[in-house]
UniProtKB/TrEMBL annotation:
Gene Ontology molecular function: 8-oxo-dGDP phosphatase activity; kinase activity
Keywords: Kinase, Transferase
UniProt KW Protein transport keyword: no
InterPro entries per the UniProt record, alphabetical: DUF4743, NUDIX_hydrolase-like_dom_sf, NUDIX_hydrolase_dom
Keyword Amino-acid biosynthesis: no
Protein known as: Thiamine pyrophosphokinase-related protein-like protein
Listed transmembrane segments: none
Length: 328
């Protein structure tokens, strides 16, 4: 059975600065700089090599410092110009099948931020390509529960199983509702949309009863279950929500991404966590839920303070994750 620390270690896998492995890993990466000179992501050697091979007529000029291992790319005056060049580079890679991860092309855009630029945006990037640039991405995750006085802690939790056909973490357990925040979309509206798409939840119920519970942050180094190339950098911020469902409201699959929903006691969820059945970042969301509800506490978890700290890791790149108000 996996411990709670084991679950954290499966998702928050980028070494911390006090770990010698941090220096070792950084020595193999390039830091991507925005036009303002601000670090916005980590690029692996293989991605740098592929970027260098893209014709200059597509990508523009690169400024590379091998001594400091930095790359300034897409150095154009406006966000619109930068986004167009990033899109052209990603389309070139996709056409030439440069990276397997682009087989999961979504036609969805994520925003990359830098408050030092006009408008606060560096560029938009195709969702499946975001990990190639190692930039911070954002999503929403909601845990739905139902009052159950006879159950441990007085609740039962709705847990979906991902469709086995999904290219990432197929067949694993998830949070009740989860999805990526598209460019130009605010977290709450993203949640409302995903709630209907993934769980058939009534819009008026979500809008009227959902509770925002802050964020969690972590830095994941992709592994085989994520699909595509392993070793790509993926720092993420998830906006967290809770929703109590009436007994007569049952989440139901409304697309091909969810196989079924279970209504489980806290003990059953804990057992599934221990068996490693949850998608890694969804396990972190469940731990956050347990911490907030007092289910996980100093009395039953010797690493309680470390768990709380690692659920809210400081990410070194700019973005709205640095301001709770910006993600409301």
């Amino acid at each position: 059975m996996k411990s709670n620390l084991d679950l954290l270690d499966e998702c928050d896998t980028f070494p911390y600065p006090d770990n010698p492995a941090h220096t070792t890993l950084l020595s193999t990466l390039y830091t991507l700089l925005s036009p303002s000179g601000t670090p916005i992501g980590y690029i692996t050697e293989s991605v740098f090599t592929a970027l260098a091979k893209v014709p200059t007529s597509i990508k523009g000029e690169l400024e590379v410092s091998r001594s400091s291992r930095t790359i300034t790319a897409f150095n154009f005056p406006t966000e619109k110009e930068r986004s167009a060049v990033v899109a052209a580079v990603c389309a070139y890679w996709r056409k030439n099948q440069t990276f397997k991860v682009l087989a999961g092309w979504r036609d969805e855009l994520y925003t990359v931020y830098d408050e030092g630029l006009e408008g606060g945006k560096v560029f938009d990037v195709e969702r499946s390509a975001s990990c190639l640039f190692g930039v911070v991405t954002y999503g929403v995750h909601m845990t739905c529960y139902t009052a159950s006085p006879s159950s441990p802690h007085g609740i039962k939790i709705w847990v979906p199983r991902r469709a086995k056909t999904k290219s990432t973490y197929g067949g694993m357990l998830d949070n009740t509702v989860a999805g990526g925040i598209a460019s130009g979309e605010v977290p709450f509206e993203c949640l409302v949309r995903e709630s209907e798409e993934e769980a058939s939840l009534p819009e008026d119920l979500v809008r009227g009863k959902v509770e925002a519970k802050g964020t969690i942050t972590y830095f994941h180094v992709r592994e085989p279950r994520a699909g595509g190339e392993s070793g790509l950098m993926q720092p993420e911020c998830q906006c967290v929500f809770d929703l109590e469902l009436p007994e007569d409201v049952l989440p139901k699959p409304n697309d091909s991404e969810v196989e079924c929903f279970y209504l489980w006691t806290v003990d059953e969820v804990n057992e599934a966590l221990g068996r490693g059945e949850f998608k890694p970042n969804c396990a972190m969301l469940m731990l956050d839920f347990f911490v907030r509800w007092g289910i996980l506490n100093e009395g039953n978890e010797p690493h309680y303070e470390e768990i709380k700290r690692r659920l809210h890791r400081e990410l070194e790149f700019p973005g709205p994750h640095r301001s709770a108000r910006a993600l409301t």
